[in-house]
Amino acid sequence: MAERDYNFKDVVLMEWGDITLKHLKTDIEHFTVFDKKLNPDFVTDLEKQVTQAYKDGGDILNITQLQEKTELVEKTMQECRTYFKHLKYWVLDVFPSQNAIQRQFGIGRFKDVTKNQLKMISYLEGLTETIQQHYTALETAEVPAELLKQPSVLAETLRNANIEQEQKKGTRTIDTEKRVDQLNALYHVLQKINAAADTVFEEVPAKRNLYRPPYKNKKKVVNEEEE
User: Fold this and answer.
1) Residue 68 to residue 164: CA distance in whole angstroms
2) At what angle do helices 40-56 and 145-200 cross, to 10 degrees?
3) Alpha carbon distance 218, 158 (integer Å)
4) From CA 193, how far away is CA 123, in angstroms rounded?
């Protein structure tokens, strides 16, 4: 995971970028005399960096999308729990004293299965085979045909939802690292300007102070996606 090179919040960094950019546009000629690389093109590039930082500076979209994927997984898990409740009635009705068969269907162990989507997927995949094995007895007892077909449908739905959730988790990590790299780059540009201002305005303290970084606490500041 990429780490920040600064110890204040991202929004404070972006605000520092905005303030520095405003003053730099006015004072750029003074900086250019000191360092030719600090010229109008440099200001244009800095403006793009600051704008991009504001555009990508938040994790709200990623969080929202991940929440949607997580909610879909939980919704499907709840559908699986409801399905098992209906299936359990028929299993106990058709196989009242046959504990081994009941256990095949998940009676007595479903509580553990329902704690994890991977366990649930495995259970549903096995349940399809179990139903086929006892299909004649279930059909004879007039168990609803739709109930007997449902495990494979639920298994596929849950597998797809789980895959999408895990993919989004990975994408969010990549996006976060890219964003931190971009913010670090902005930070170092602002530090470069701050260092230059130390000489450019060494005899004008009021001007020099305009380019100083925000006050830094010694404690690490937690940013949004780390909370």
Assistant:
1) 10
2) 150
3) 46
4) 61
Output the 3-class SS for the chain: CCCCCCCCCHHHHHHHHHHHHHHHHHHHHHHHHHCCCCCHHHHHHHHHHHHHHHHHCCCHHHHHHHHHHHHHHHHHHHHHHHHHHHHHHHHHHHCCCCHHHHHHCCCCCHHHHCCCHHHHHHHHHHHHHHHHHCHHHHHHCCCCHHHHHHHHHHHHHHHHHHHHHHHHHHHHHHHHHHHHHHHHHHHHHHHHHHHHHHHHCCCCHHHHHCCCCCCCCCCCCCCHHHC
Please state, in angstroms and rounded to a whole number, the distance separating the CA atoms of residues 72 and 100.
33
How do residues 88-133 score in pLDDT, each as one tens digit?
999 999 999 999 999 999 999 999 999 889 999 999 999 999 999 9
Structural tokens at position 115: 């704690």
Q: Which has the closest alpha carbon to 105: 76, 84, 122?
A: 84
By C-alpha distance, which of 156, 168, 179, 205 is closest to 13? 179
Q: Show contacts of 166-171: CB within 8 Å, 24+ apart.
A: 168/62, 168/65, 168/66, 168/69, 169/66, 171/62
Two structure tokens written together for 80: 């699986």
Which residues 6+ apart lie within 8 Å of 37 measured at CB? none
> Would you mind telling me the total number of residues written for the chain in this entry?
227
| 5-19, 78-92, 136-150, 211-225: least confident range | 211-225
